[in-house]
Amino acid sequence: MVRKQQGDTVLDWNNQVAIITGAAQGIGKAIAQELAASGVIVVVADIAEGKIGAAVSEIMESGGRAIPLRLDVSDPAHVENGIRKVIDEQGRLDILVNNAGITRDGLLMRMKDEDWKAVLDVNLAGTFYCCREAIPAMIKARRGRIINLASVVAQLGNAGQANYVASKAGIIGLTKALARELAGRQITVNAVAPGFIDTEMTRILPDSAREKLLSAIPLGRMGLDKDIAHAVKFLASPQAGYITGQVINVNGGMYM
Ligand SMILES: NC(=O)c1ccc[n+]([C@@H]2O[C@H](COP(=O)([O-])OP(=O)(O)OC[C@H]3O[C@@H](n4cnc5c(N)ncnc54)[C@H](O)[C@@H]3O)[C@@H](O)[C@H]2O)c1
Known about the structure:
Layout: E1 17-21, H1 26-37, E2 41-46, H2 49-61, E3 65-70, H3 76-90, E4 95-98, H4 113-141, E5 144-149, H5 153-156, H6 162-182, E6 187-194, H7 200-203, H8 207-215, H9 225-236, E7 247-250
Parallel strand pairs: 1-2, 1-4, 2-3, 4-5, 5-6, 6-7
Helix pairs in contact: 1-9, 3-4, 4-6
The structure holds nicotinamide-adenine-dinucleotide.
Residues 21-22, 24-28, 46-48, 71-74, 99-102, 122, 126, 149, 151, 194, 196-197, 199-202 line the site of nicotinamide-adenine-dinucleotide (NAD).
């Protein structure tokens, strides 16, 4: 159990409530499992209704506490109702992890309006909507942790991903602006920028693209969902209370 520390009003992990978006699979699910293993009540929020139940059951079977929430982060009314319901029922919201994300890759000169819009709506606007709904409860409690999932490509650029890269670079800017807005309330806002992680998102890449990406990783392997979950858990922890407005790179050295 983590005891109260100077400069941090959070007593311990137990009974804290966290919403993790896109938590039905991949990195989000690993984050939910890590936080639940520390005693946090995790809300598994995802648009993929069919997968939420399995993720929740896995956490419960390991002794954790998890709540299912079907949530489309790109729909502001849906986000307002969903997050309000969690706060009303649980009476608190300590941690928000904005992890839901999609790709619609293609060269910019051929990119369709709907592919640009879909990626910006889920990745960037979704992060904005969730932050907006989560913040009042955190301000009232004078504590909170917001962690946004960016990407190494926000700093490197990537051909064929203008929409995705723009959304992730936007998330870094949003993170820093919000960190400044909320610092006076003892709410920290940080981003984690994963490199090339082995999940459904990257399994769809052709072998040639995967090999090229692998050759650019100094540590010589793809990242695991757990590699990202550990960094998120640290930023969510009472020990990270003096870190805000930062981008933590977890990329095997792809960008340094
Ligand atoms: N996998 C990587 O290499 C990598 C690298 C850098 C950044 N990231 C970022 O990490 C995050 C998680 O990626 P992942 O690899 O686990 O992806 P994933 O595709 O395995 O999982 C994404 C989850 O988000 C959910 N989701 C999609 N649209 C949603 C919406 N509108 N509302 C709510 N949930 C929605 C999906 O149903 C899915 O469960 C994303 O933000 C991604 O951009 C991943």
